Amino acid sequence: MQFSSPVSIPNHWHHASIDTALTSLGSNPDQGLTEAEVRRRQESYGSNELKEQNRRRKFDIFIDQFRNVMLIMLLVVAVISAIIDIAEGFQVEQALVFPKDAFAILIVVILNGILGYVQESRAEEALAALKNMSAPKVRVLREGRSQEIDSPQLVVGDIVFLEAGVKISADGRLLEAMNLQVRESALTGEAEAVNKKAEVVLPEDTELGDRVNLVFSGTEITHGRGVALVTSIGMDTELGKIATALQSVQQEPTPLQKRMTELGNKLVWMALVLVTLVVGGGTLYNPELFGHLIKVSLSMAVAVVPEGLPAVITVTLALGTQRMVKRNALIRRLPAVETLGSVTTICSDKTGTLTQNKMVVQGIRTYQGEAIASGEGYHPQGNLQATLEETVATRAEQQLLLLGGVLCNDAVLQQEDGKWGILGDPTEAALLPLAIKGGLNLDRVREAFPRVGEFPFNSDRKRMSVFVTLPVDHDYALPQDPSYLMVTKGSPESILDRCRYIQIGEDQATLTPEIVQEIIKQNNELAAQGLRVLGLAYRGWQELPPLGSEDTSEQEMVWLGLVGILDPPRPEVKVAVETCRSAGIRPIMITGDHQLTAQAIAASIGICQRGDRVLTGREIEKMSSEELEQSVNEVSVYARVSPEHKLRIVRALQRQNQVVAMTGDGVNDAPALKQADIGVAMGITGTDVTKEASEMVLLDDNFATIVAATEEGRVIYGNIRRFIKYILGSNIGEVITIASAPLLGLGGVPLTPLQILWMNLVTDGLPALALAVEPGSANVMKRSPVKPKDSIFADGLGMYMVRVGLILAIVSIALMVWAYSYTNVYQTEWLHRERWTTMVFTTLCLAQMGHAIAVRSDTRLTLEMNPLTNPYIWAAVLLTTVLQLLLIYVTPLRLFFGTYWLSLRELAICVGCSFLIFVWVELEKIVLRFWRRSRS
Predict the structure, then answer these.
(1) How far is CA 9 from CA 20, 40, 47, 173, 289, in A?
(2) What does the H/E/C string look like for 869-897?
(3) Which of the residues 328, 342, 610, 855 could staple to 700 if both were Cys, CB 3.0 to 4.6 A apart?
């Protein structure tokens, strides 16, 4: 039989009959494929594996770090500095001089490159997690023999055998299915196992979760056995499509990464402009100064670059991740910490994230009565109180409804250490404490009505049925003649369509159109209250119907009533939503539930108002991208959506310049999580794939944890801005001081590249790390999010750095001019130079200590702040001051750094000048405070 490409029926194998599928793929159900045909197909279509595309090699990632414009400039400076040092060594001593400035710069460049590599080289493990979902072994039929092979050797057209416990390794069309049930929750998000059928042919537009005649790679057989024809392998499977979507999502740089790139470009341009002005202008003034000006320009270039900034930012983000873990948020990628502070929209699932995932029955409705259930959680304490006067008739209806809820139920209610819990589906489990509140004994009921058969839940039918033996002597208003009772539970709409009768009191009556409309009205009323609604019905049987006869057996049923179940919102969620609102963050609910239920829950916790528009997945399907973009700014609740819709919603929000956090738990949520600025995986219910595709994992699956992590992100971003203005303000002062020396006719460079590196790495770095743990202000969640397109210099930070840099330069230049004249009494030129340059070096370093203390707050004076809120800043200032003094007074360090022993008088002058920077910053706060008061 000639093999024809599966493209002949693209993506519609569920619409093909068994014979059509076998013919299209050239396969024989009795013999399978021949070995020759297998080899030919493997050559044509490759192996059954998920393939990685466009993945960067580790070496390429490392090399990319040195394409950073600031590091390139430092490398150029190191080379030029080495050439000058070696050349001067030959001129003076005719011997090779160790270029310590160049060597120090090179070490800094390499360390920064390694730091960037470590952050960026973390391999994307989402695809690896997907690969782990494929089965390592599979049993196939080839040349008439059953044999076990490795799953990568599977080809399209293979006949595979399925049995309970097997993990499916390729997509296939079922040829046989004997009580076959498959757990597809990782792929479709549906928790219930799907009952598979081989003989059915489904419409082309059948949803993925309803394709009961297909099996999919990565899913697992839970019950029964079957035979399938492989229709897709590797990247062509549904799992492969998710892998393709994951790899096609482009990882956008985080706001912080964009701002740091922008900062680096601006600093380099500033350095080039300054070097050009100083070297060009000075050479025109006096050509003999060219060599001296080159040295000055090298020091200026090193002073411009904040060499310690990348390390400080990395450590700050790492410390932030540790604090977030204590708040149940596990950060998987460091830059995500800062991105959280910029989040403008949080898209959250409902069940388990906004709600407790503890189903509690709120009430029941039968034809003649309504009853309200009291109690909390799965604890059976409480009662069932009728809203009207209870009669014998209403009591009979309610008892039958409670009985049905116990019999058509696979959950188990249990008590451990005084706490009530469940095993099984939460929705089913909610019916058990309800029955106890209504007076039933669970053990006695199950003993009296033993189960003898079932039609399992199916996402297509949206219901399940069980068969129990009907005891001869019972106290319920049931027909006495049948031997068996079928109880059906599920979607009210799907069950009501199959009912012909209704239970009224102790009798059964015909279900009229008027009664049907009344039941539909009751269902909508319960859904509008945010309740998940179940319908129950029953039917008597003399003999058990055959297996697989759901469509014909689930007919002519007797309607019992409705059960309204609430998944209560988490108590802390309403406060978290209010916090979001005050912080300028928009919370959005995205759920697969009924739109009335979703809207009611959303309204109760403040995400929307009653009557607001709810967008459903069916409506999204019909929308163009442009129409969806217009809607996302108005709609805060999305219902009946699929993971594909989530991806579209995220992209639409991002095109509206929103920074989006998105939650998810299933494999098919992974593309949307990766597309979002912050992908948030569920730590309890989430799959490995979603966790690997995410930036953050919620250890408690709680929406409030996202808000807490966002608050932490804002604090971290505020601290990053704080130490950036501290570091760069000092750097500006250094650059101006260095540039002024030749213009003032001073014979020497006030700071060597090595001394500048010391200031940028140690004198700046240690206090900057201390500033990184500064506690956040009380109003951190009462401000709007940082706009993604805002520069790092926004909100006055740039002007602040320029002001402080100018003041620092003025103080340093004044001291430099005085020190140059004061130390000119020395006859030896190098002693003179090292003495006044040491005073400038010391003043700049100590001035930064005062600046670090003052910069802790933009508005509060240092005297007004509790020093114990950040003891690290005081420790850092003390340690850095001691280290600076060691450079002056310890001989080996003094010789290496080119400093001079200062007298106490000279040191006191340096301390006094440096203290002026602290005074200036504090005075700025006072002036700003009076200005704001005058405006208000």
Answers:
(1) 10, 21, 21, 12, 80
(2) HCHHHHHHHHHHHHHHHHHHHCHHHHHHH
(3) 328
Report residue 874's pLDDT band, with 50, 70 and 90 as the boundaries. Answer: very high
Question: Is the separation of the CB atoms in 735 and 845 below 8 Å?
Answer: no
Nearest to 536 by CA among 561, 565, 510, 501: 561
Within 10 angstroms of residue 114's Cβ, the number of other Cβ atoms is 12
Question: 255-323+710-779+808-935 has which CATH code?
Answer: 1.20.1110.10
Grouping H, G, I as helix, E, B as strand and the rest as coil, residue 477 is coil
Question: What would the two tokens of residue 692 be?
Answer: 């690997």
- Taking the whole predicted model, whether its pTM rises above 0.85 is answered as no
Alpha-carbon distance 43 to 38, whole Å? 9
Question: Which residue is catalytic, options 349, 593, 677, 764?
Answer: 349
Residues sharing a CB contact under 8 Å with residue 276, sequence separation 6 or more, in sequence order: none
Q: Could you write out the DSSP letters of every residue in 784-808? A: PPPPTT--TTTTTHHHHHHHHHHHH
Q: Using one digit for the tens of pLDDT, what is the confidence trace for 694-727?
A: 888 888 888 888 898 888 888 888 888 888 889 8
Task: Check if 349 is active-site.
Answer: yes
CA 672 from chain centre, in angstroms, equals: 10
Instruction: For residue 652, give Cα distances in angstroms to 242, 348, 912.
Output: 20, 16, 58
Q: CB under 8 Å to 22, separation ≥6 — which residues?
A: 28, 29, 175, 229
Q: How far apart are CA 662 and CA 647, in angstroms?
A: 10
Alpha-carbon distance of 366 to 9, in angstroms, equals 48
Check residue 138 and report its DSSP letter.
Answer: E
Sequence-ordered alpha helix ranges (H) in 226-372: 238-248, 255-285, 290-304, 309-325, 335-340
Q: Residue 574: which of 590, 562, 587, 564 has the closest Cα?
A: 587
- In CATH, the number for domain 360-566 is 3.40.1110.10
The candidate with the shortest Cα–Cα distance to 242, out of 50, 409, 111, 511, is 50
Q: What is the mean pLDDT of residues 522-527?
A: 89
- Cα–Cα distance list, 547 to 5, 180, 257, 429, 932 (Å): 36, 12, 60, 26, 79
Burial class from Cβ neighbours inside 10 Å (0-12, 13-18, 19+) for residue 576 reads buried
What phi and psi values does residue 861 have, to the nearest 5 degrees?
-70, 155
Q: How far apart are the first and last CA of the chain?
A: 88
The number of C-alpha atoms within 13 Å of 374 and in the hemisphere containing its C-beta is: 7
> Around 65, how many Cα atoms within 13 Å sit in the side-chain half-sphere?
19
814 pLDDT more than 90: yes
pLDDT score of 86: 66
Contact 186, 167 (CB under 8 A): no
Nearest CA to 373 out of 391, 361, 388 is that of 361
Q: Tokens representing 367?
A: 């034809």
Q: Which CATH superfamily is domain 329-355+570-701 in?
A: HAD superfamily/HAD-like (3.40.50.1000)
Strands 614-616 and 637-639: what pairing?
parallel
Q: Which of 870, 879, 899 is nearest to 762 (CA)?
A: 879
Q: What angle do CA 715, 717, 720 make, to 5 degrees?
A: 110
Rounded percentage of the chain residues whose pLDDT exceeds 90: 30
Q: Give the C-alpha separation, 555 to 357, whole Å.
A: 32
Candidates 1.10.1040.10, 3.30.499.10, 2.70.150.10, 3.40.50.300; correct CATH number of 6-52+133-237? 2.70.150.10
Domain boundary assignment for the chain: 6-52+133-237, 56-123, 255-323+710-779+808-935, 329-355+570-701, 360-566
Number of Cβ within 10 Å of residue 845's Cβ equals 24
- 303 with 739: CB under 8 angstroms? no
User: Taking a C-beta distance cutoff of 8 angstroms, is the pair 820, 836 a contact?
Assistant: yes
